[in-house]
Amino acid sequence: MAVIEFVDDDFYTELEALIVVTGPKECLLPSVAAEYERVEQIMKRNNVIVTTRKVKEFMKDKVDVIDSLNKLLRFREGQHPNANTIPEVSKSLALSALGVILNYLELTQEPGNHGQFRLESLDSNRFVHLDAAAVSALNLFPNPGTSVKSNAYRWQSVLGVLDRCRTPQGHRLMAQWMKQPLQDYEIIKDRHDIVEYFVNNTIVRSELYDNHLKKLPDIMFVLKRLLRRKASLQDIFRLYQVILRVPRMLTLLETNDLESIAVLNNIYNPIKDSLNDLKLFKSMVEQIIDLQAVEHGEYLVKADFDSQLKKRKEEMDEVYSKMKHHLSTVAKDIGLDAGSSIKLEFVSQHGYHFRITLKDETLIRKNNSYRILDAVKGGVRFITTKLQDYSESFATLKIAYEEQQQTIVAEVIRVAVGYVEPWTMLNSQIAYLDCLVSFAVSASTAPIPYVRPKMYREGPSVLKLIQVRHPCLELQEDVNYIANDAMFDAKETSTYIITGPNMGGKSTYIRSVGVTVLMAHIGSFVPCESAEMSIFDCILGRVGADDNFTKGLSTFMVEMIETAGIIRRATDRSLVIIDELGRGTSTYEGCGIAWSIAECLAKESKCFTLFATHFQEITDLASYVENVKNCHMQAIVDGECLTLLYQVKPGVMEKSFGIQVAKLANFPPGVIKLAQKFYNECEDHRGVIKEKHDTDCLAVLQKCFSEIDNFDCDSDNFALTPDALERLLFLVN
């Protein structure tokens, strides 16, 4: 459980950021609240279910909440077992909300929940702020319902590319990291160090990935069964198997290289400590569970533990011996070797039975003493009347044995619950290792291997990506990805206005930059030849049109809401990607809005901005703001043929080549001809307007200069005195 309190603005910018970071499924709101409607809109925009509760539930007495916490919390060793001593309970507003949640979920009603929770403060400033638009624009997550095992999962999203995890806990942690890129330089560095080790040590990486991690169970799933007292001896044995396998994994991480030791200590030591805490658990399992019976798929308490169990075990062994003797008799009857050509086996569907190969089936086909159960690729299963009787007797004895051992099993489960904390720690450590191995596998197996980004803790903001690629697109078949550079410097270039033809690669380019920055901040290597960057505080985006019909919002309204959020949030440590802003209204209004937003980001926020647009007028911004640069996606037109080169070049692309793209899409010739005619008329009209505008501007300047006397127009170096310059600016304005 985590609590947080913060001061927000009128638009709930911080709240929306928190929703993206934590990914809640449901939000509880008071049934009557002044700001309820606005908060509900934010929740729905982020696909969070809204549930209303009575106002009085939010006014619950603090004492009641403390009492509930005293039941639910697991206090650390040496900590006073009273929730009043925890700093988090001083957050009165958060505590009030927590009380509503505890009541809504009825957590105290389930004894299995008692003593199983921690309460901590959530610091959202630890993470890079992601808005919902950026999460969508960067394709961080696959479409709902996409199977982790499907081919589409791998290239459909960034998570699919990086999530090569082998354990369920690894998959969950990877998705969490994707929503929570870090601002903490040291943690990012630790992750990069470990990923680099696994990239450089192929044998260690392959052994962990191919032979160990995939054989580990979902520890948290087993722990939930333990806490609910629903676990079985099989669950206990699954945990025991983890204790047996993890030391072999640690052996792989042992090295004599001092530098590697320093890197791996962040993984090795915590796992080793958790194993030490579980030594008594391991000893308990070995003393109580019959490990020989496990080899036959039976999970039983050792017979020596109880006199009645010992008696049942002797009876079961006697019946089993009779079945083995009967196996020898049948083998001799049909002329096969017992234990090799004919085997005694058990499956829950048929009980004990004999199995022979398909080619030996003729030996029993016409013998009425043998009844065939089924014939599959693995062989022919059959029984005799005597074996069926033995099997039924054995099953009856086994049921009695299991009933007899229930008291002992319940005690084992009770003791095992006491080890939940070290198991939880080990689960987290395995998930952490799995994610970093996954990063290394993704980096090593990419079409072009990823590289380690160089991160800067402090100093002027910088972003230098050499030959950056999009990790999803380069995985697709028949795609020859064209890489490009992205060079930002706080002192020289903070904003790029990107023009170019439709389908020319503008959107892909700006997305690739955003994805690469995010990958670096979660600890992954990046798809570049080289990469340098500062620690960013935000990755914000507005890419593509989105009519939000279910929420009653038009394309333009969604665009304005998301862009307003960007302006409010962006700082000089932010990365902003904007594509095709202003298309949802008239051309001139859209252009004006796009210009003002680009100028605001460049001059006020001073964030790093990639601004893709078809409004050619916005490129003039580079003449007014020194840190704005123009670039374009290169294309070649040869007669009627348009060739898209997907390369970023300096300067402005004067045309968008929309009509040429329409031709590529096989538009009817009549439509193309009409479009070209209308385009030519618009260009002619635009030229007339521009000529008149230039004439008007010249007239204004001439009038202004006529009122100023103190400058020398014949001088080679035209200059104004400060007073004259101030007067000129006043007159022009």
From TrEMBL:
The record's section on InterPro entries has: DNA_mismatch_repair_Msh2, DNA_mismatch_repair_MutS_C, DNA_mismatch_repair_MutS_clamp, DNA_mismatch_repair_MutS_core, DNA_mismatch_repair_MutS_sf, DNA_mmatch_repair_MutS_con_dom, MutS, MutS_con_dom_sf
Among SMART domains, the record links this protein to: MUTSac, MUTSd
Provide the GO MF annotations for this entry.
Answer: ATP binding; ATP-dependent DNA damage sensor activity; mismatched DNA binding
Domain DNA mismatch repair proteins mutS family: where?
Answer: 574-590
Keyword ATP-binding applies: yes
Q: Which GO terms describe its biological process?
A: maintenance of DNA repeat elements; mismatch repair; mitotic recombination
Instruction: Give the subcellular location.
Output: Nucleus
Would the keyword DNA repair turn up in this protein's UniProt record? yes
Question: Per the record, what is one GO cellular component?
Answer: MutSalpha complex
First and last residue of the signal peptide: none
Keyword set for this entry? ATP-binding, DNA damage, DNA repair, DNA-binding, Nucleotide-binding, Nucleus
By sequence similarity, the record places it as follows: Belongs to the DNA mismatch repair MutS family.
The identity of this protein, by name, is DNA mismatch repair proteins mutS family domain-containing protein
